[in-house]
Each structure stands twice: as structure tokens, then as C-alpha cells.
UniProtKB/TrEMBL annotation:
Domain Methylmalonyl-CoA mutase alpha/beta chain catalytic: 7-520
Keywords: Isomerase
Pfam families: MM_CoA_mutase (PF01642)
InterPro entries in UniProt: Cbl-dep_enz_cat, MeMalonylCoA_mutase_a/b_cat, MMCoA_mutase_a_cat
Single annotated GO MF: cobalamin binding
Keyword Isomerase: yes
Organism ancestry: Bacteria, Bacillati, Actinomycetota, Actinomycetes, Streptosporangiales
Species per Swiss-Prot/TrEMBL record: Actinoallomurus iriomotensis
Name the record gives this protein: Methylmalonyl-CoA mutase
The organism's place on the tree of life at top rank: Bacteria
């Protein structure tokens, strides 16, 4: 008798699957054709047979000038889209010269304080041609407006701009922590972004609803998808309540997931997620536009699975993860650099990460046919089982009053923490093998020289800020910030006065503080 093992989500995996596994399986209802409801096989009819996914490499560190140089290197190396990492002060709505920002400027991403920095960041880059993704949440409105203003300064019309802002603050309350305002005020800001982009920047993806960070915090694949889609439902409800038509904003919704080395479960996870979302949008929210029913997503390889020990082995992990994302039908992909468990990636490591995608796209045959796992006994069974488990967990969130109410009760956070603790125990007990960490260990690690951020960057950034405040019309800036506060107190769209203030060289910190003055800040309750 075969004893089944269990996958990352705790579901059984049988040693052998056969025709009896799919007895009664309705392929038309469960799968459909690629590009057709319920989109199990992919959101586009031809998928990668016409062109490969977007190779979008995440980068940004230090000053805007240094990051600009890295972006030019990536574009010249063949990347099809840019993905911007911001430092923690920028993410949290603080300027580089505030005491709370000390020691963090330029560390985990680029420091952007004002329109001056944004101009430098994108200098010489063809914004009408390059798709730009910005990993920014609480301050997403300000960074998007700065991008629009810089593009206008280059003569690029807003209607031509393409890209994505992450803008998913609900997952920050669950897993990451870079929130500013309370949940209801954050949702108001997000619905203002939806409405603004529908009018002003129609090709922009206004949100990338993210499971990645929850997965990195320890969520299982089932938890990752369930909590992400529950958050997505909250955003859709908020936008509809604000008077937006679902088919006006839903086509610009996008998602962001992790891909792990457990390749088969990951492929099934992506297929199940597409099917679930299409039915949620059609049956719960009445979406009729097929684009509103599509779950389009970006994928990043799992950083939490990279190891500081024997870091070159991470090249193998990333290649397998990237293959899983492609077989699962991702729309764009970031492959991590092998040295990211140690520090910011070196130029060589970043180039190798991009080359990994290019090998998958151009030297394998995975782009030759759509959804090659379709009809597999195992794959269809696992897709169905994951779908059932995900729907059960979404229902558990709904039973608690929806995503925001569940967040306030600490539900998602406590569930993820339990999973993270279990994984850590399994590694410590050698029940889960991590090559180079608890098995196949070297007696002595080879030396590795990581990339380091120069502390002078913070000094220089603060000096630039001081000069900006001397040069600009401070009275005009203060009037614009007052208008922003007034809009926040009322029901008007706050992005209009925010754009005015930023154009006058108000800083990201100043517009964030103006909203703090009106909305306050969120103080979390402990899940325990």
C-alpha cells in the first residue's frame, strides 16, 4: 500500500494518478479553451506561442542616479519592463532627512523624496515604450503622480503610459507592515486611484493584489491565494460602493504571486486561482467584460527559499521556480539574483537572473504550446483539490466579515504565523531538506563579497532636500498641502490636489504627513 505524501498546502499527493482520478471530469466546464472562461488554461488564447512573458527585473538602490544607470543596463540587456524598488522611508511616507529615516536611506531600494529624484530616476528612458512596475503601497498615489508628471515633462501623454503600482495595502496589515493610514482611509485612497487612472492613465494597472509577501512570511499556497483573493474582493466592493462600474476598473486589476521550487503544486495553484477569480467576478460582482474576469498576474521567484550558504546553488532554485511560473501561465516574471539572501544583487548576479529567463524562453520548448499540463491526471486532480481548499478559506474570511474585519481580528496573520512556525520546525528537525543548510553542508563556506550601499548616499540625499526647500515656492507648496487636507476631509478625489502639490516640488513625506493630519495612522492589534 502506498502512503501519500503531502504538498506545501498539506494536501495529499498520491504516488500514482490514473484515469480513475478524473472519472466524471467535465473538461469543458473545468478548463475551457485558453483565453476563455474560466481561464484555467491561461488568460490569452495564444499565451507564449506569439511572444514570451514580460521579463520584468526588480531593481533600485541608493540614489536615483545609480538606479537609473542600472535600469539602462537592464534595458540594454533585453528586459521588457522595469520594476522599481523603493527604500523604506519612501514606502512609509517619510523624507530622507527625517530622524526616523536615519540609516535606511537607499538601503532596500531607491530613495525618492520629490519630483527631482523621479526625473533623475527615469532620465533617458523611453517612458512611452517601457512598462514600469512600482512596488509601492501606502504612498502609491504620490509615486504614480510623480511618474505621470515626469512623463509629461518628457512630452509623453498620460494615455500612453503603461505599468503597474502595487497599491495593495491590505496585505501590509497582514504580512509586511508598510502601512500608514487605518484600513478604511487606505481603501478610500485606493478607490480614488482607480477613478483617477480610469480618466487620466487608462492603460495603467492600478493595483497588484499581492500574495507574494504573505507567502514569504510563511503562508502556504492555499493561504497565499485565498487571502489574496479575499483582499481583492474587498477592493472590488470598495470601488463599487464608491460608485465605480465594475467593468470600468476590473480590467486593470492585476495580481502578484510567489513561485516556489515545488513546481507541480505551484502550476496547479496558478490554474486554480484563475478559475476561482473568474467565477467570483462573474457570479458575485456581475462582471460581464471577459477582461474583468481574467486573473492577470506577475510572479517573482521565492526569496525565502534562497540561502546564504552556498549561494550559487540559488541559481538552480531560481531556474526551477521560473520554469514553474511559466508553466503556470504568468504574464510577467522576476527571477531573483542568486546573492539576494546576502545583500543587494551585484551587476553580474542581476544579469544572470535575467539570462535565466531568457534561457527558459528561447532554449526550451515551453513556449511552443499552451498549458502543456492540461489533461494530466495529477495536474487536474491537484488543481481541483487546491481550488476546494482555497474556496473554503475564502469563506472563512467572509464569515468573519470580509478581509478588513478579519485583519482587525488578526485572523490571517495568526494563520500565516502558524504555517511559518511549522516550516521552521521541519527545517530544524531535518524533516524538510534545504540543500547546503541542513543537508549536503560544506565544512567551510567559500568567501563572497556582497554589494554594499555607501552611507554617503544618505548625506547627499539630505543635502539635495535642503536645497530643494530653499529653491521652491514654499508658500505655494503650503497652499497646495492645505488643499490636499481639505480634500481628505471631504469626499473629493485626493489625487488632484496631491498632483498639484507634487508638481510644486512638495515631497513624498509632506503629502503623506498632510494625509496623516486628517486620517491618522493605523495602530495594529496583536494577533495573539
Amino acid at each position: 500500500m502506498h502512503v501519500p505524501s503531502r504538498n506545501e498546502s498539506g494536501l495529499p499527493m498520491q504516488p500514482i494518478y490514473d484515469a480513475s482520478t478524473l472519472e466524471g471530469f467535465d473538461a469543458d466546464a473545468r478548463l475551457g479553451a485558453p483565453g476563455r472562461f474560466p481561464f484555467t488554461r491561461g488568460v490569452y488564447p495564444s499565451m507564449y506561442t506569439g511572444r514570451p512573458w514580460t521579463m520584468r527585473q526588480y531593481a533600485g538602490f541608493g540614489t536615483a542616479k545609480e538606479s537609473n544607470e542600472r535600469y539602462h543596463e537592464l534595458v540594454n540587456a533585453g528586459t521588457g519592463g522595469l520594476s522599481v524598488a523603493f527604500d523604506l522611508p519612501t514606502q512609509m511616507g517619510y523624507d530622507s532627512d527625517e530622524p526616523i529615516a536615519r540609516g535606511e536611506v537607499g538601503k532596500v531600494g531607491v530613495a525618492i523624496d520629490s519630483i527631482d529624484d523621479m526625473r533623475t530616476l527615469f532620465q533617458g528612458l523611453p517612458l512611452e515604450k517601457v512598462s514600469t512596475s512600482m512596488t509601492i503601497n501606502a504612498t502609491a498615489s504620490a509615486l504614480l503622480l510623480l511618474y505621470q508628471l515626469v512623463a509629461a515633462g518628457q512630452g509623453v501623454e498620460s494615455r500612453l503610459l503603461t505599468g503597474t503600482i502595487q497599491n495593495d495595502v491590505l496585505k501590509e496589515y497582514i504580512a509586511r507592515g508598510t502601512y500608514i493610514y487605518p484600513p478604511q482611509q487606505s481603501l478610500r485612497l485606493i478607490s480614488d486611484i482607480f477613478a483617477y487612472c480610469h480618466r487620466e492613465i487608462p492603460r495603467w494597472n492600478t493595483i497588484s493584489i499581492s500574495g507574494y509577501h504573505m507567502a514569504e512570511a510563511g503562508a502556504t499556497p492555499v493561504q497565499e491565494i485565498a487571502f489574496t483573493l479575499a483582499n481583492a474582493k474587498e477592493y472590488v466592493r470598495t470601488a463599487i460602493a464608491a460608485g465605480l462600474d465594475v467593468d470600468d476598473f476590473a480590467p486593470r486589476l492585476s495580481f502578484f504571486f510567489v513561485v516556489r521550487t515545488t513546481l507541480l503544486e505551484e502550476v496547479a495553484k496558478f490554474r486554480a486561482a484563475r478559475r476561482i477569480w473568474s467565477r467570483i467576478m462573474r457570479d458575485e460582482f456581475g462582471a460581464r467584460n471577459p477582461k474583468s474576469q481574467m486573473l492577470r498576474f506577475h510572479t517573482q521567484t521565492a526569496g525565502v527559499q534562497l540561502t546564504a550558504q552556498q549561494p550559487e546553488v540559488n541559481l538552480v532554485r531560481v531556474a526551477l521556480q521560473g520554469l514553474g511560473a511559466v508553466l503556470g501561465g504568468t504574464q510577467s516574471l522576476h527571477t531573483n539574483s542568486y546573492d539576494e539572501a546576502i545583500a543587494l544583487p551585484t551587476q553580474k548576479a542581476a544579469r544572470l537572473a535575467l539570462r535565466t529567463q531568457q534561457v527558459i524562453a528561447y532554449e526550451t520548448d515551453v513556449t511552443k504550446t499552451v498549458d502543456p499540463f492540461a489533461g494530466s491526471y495529477f495536474m487536474e486532480a491537484m488543481t481541483d483539490e487546491l481550488e476546494a481548499a482555497i474556496l473554503e478559506l475564502i469563506q472563512a474570511v467572509d464569515d468573519r466579515g470580509g478581509a478588513v474585519a478579519a485583519i482587525e481580528q488578526g485572523f490571517q496573520k495568526s494563520e500565516i504565523e502558524r504555517s511559518a512556525y511549522r516550516i521552521a520546525q521541519e527545517i530544524d528537525n531535518q524533516e524538510r531538506t534545504v540543500v547546503g543548510v541542513n543537508k549536503f553542508v560544506l565544512d567551510e563556506e567559500e568567501p563572497y563579497e556582497p554589494m554594499r550601499v555607501d552611507p554617503q548616499i544618505e548625506v547627499d540625499q539630505c543635502e539635495r532636500l535642503a536645497a530643494l526647500r530653499e529653491e521652491r515656492d514654499n508658500a505655494a507648496v503650503e497652499r497646495a498641502l492645505d488643499a490636499l487636507r481639505s480634500a481628505a476631509q471631504g469626499t473629493g478625489n485626493v489625487l488632484l490636489p496631491m498632483r498639484e502639490a507634487l508638481g510644486l516640488r512638495a515631497t513624498v513625506g509632506e503629502v503623506s504627513h498632510a494625509l496623516r493630519d486628517v486620517w491618522g495612522v493605523y495602530v495594529p492589534t496583536d494577533a495573539f
